[in-house]
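haha ok so turns out i had the wrong file open the whole time. this is the CORRECT one, sorry everyone. sequence first:
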Amino acid sequence: MARRIVLTMLALIGALLVTTVVPMGLITTGHERSSFQQETMLSARALAGLAEDRLADPPPAGVAAVAGALGQARRAGEQVRVYSASRRLVTGTGGDAAIPAATLTTALRGRTVVDTSVDDRLQVTVPVPGDKARAVVGAVVLSRSSAELEERVGVLWSWLAAVALAGLAAAAVAAIALARWVSRPLSALDAAAQRLGGGALDTRSAAGNGPPEVRRLARNFNGMAGRLESLVHGNRATMADVSHQLRTPLAALRLRLDVLCQDSDPETAEELAGAQDEIARLSHLVDGLLALARAESVLIEPVTIRADEVIRDRAAAWRPVAEERGVELRPSCAGPVLAVAGEGHLEQILDNLLANALDAVPAGGHVQVSAAADGDGARVVVADDGPGMTPRQQQMAFRRFASSTPGGAGLGLAIVHRLVTSNGGSAVLSDTPGGGLTVTVNLLAELPERARRAAQASD
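then structure:
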């Protein structure tokens, strides 16, 4: 945004300078050229007045004034030639101030001719008026160098260009200052929003910089973040406290049932065993709620990890369980696969997915876990050939307490979904070809630019 503000202001100021400076330069240049031409014409007419006596027949005694004027013109670098009515060169300063026949004819007919086609010179041809009997007795050609005029015009345009550049530079400084004044608090607010979205609920944005609208936006953001932090922490604390408080009475109840089972008849012992199973199921549910609360409350900075190494490690850890249940667990990685995740997150994701798969697959089944690079990310797949899920169950699977397994807590996939999304990835359920369920986890291969900026801003 700062770049757009600067470029827009520079474009506007540049257009304003062009529409002001260029017409001013053109008008001033035209005035200088017109003044130079008028001055040359006046000088030529003055010489024509002096040349009238020189062209008289016989010339009067005061013709010495013509010679003096020619000497003065020669010293000034001007070229003068005086022609008679018969087109004869009467006198002049020398040089190459030649005159075309058509121009001389026009001047002898009483009209002034201005010729700018001569290189770096202005040539003016004026008629020499005679007495009443003869209206025109000759012509005077004055050729004057325009180098001094061009130099003045060049200096004028240089000054105008310098003024325009100075104005543009001042506008650039002002535009950069304005852009920073506006964009810096917005960038800080953007970084704060990134951190808040990443789970840092204590994030706040500075509300004392920038325009009033941006300061008001920052205050509203801080108020929203405060209310969000209070609500989320309250919810998490409640879930964690309730789950934790339930563990003690459940443990005590299990011990009492164990004691009762020892002194009960077989029928009563069977009923008590069913109660113990329900208590074990409830304990498993409480443990899942605690794990979910920890997954939602703990913010871990994402790092680059080797997904293939994590898969081989977790497959080795779960292989004894798979062998005990008669299930073949097969890890498959073509080569090194890089992924971005919080430390320990991929391990938790795989533990939950493998536990669900091993619970669902009957003896003789297969569970395959693999990882592969996928464009700018990494794809981790856990596929089994168990009973699978219906489309409706797949749609509800990532919600809490939604379980397709009898007696399941319905929290494993919810924990997976929370961990995957917190790392900027996604999780998708699909049918395994031939039957079963496939869970595809897509993770980033590197931190996105916005996340890097947010991390830098937090530092």
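The chain has a mean pLDDT of 80.
again sry for the mixup
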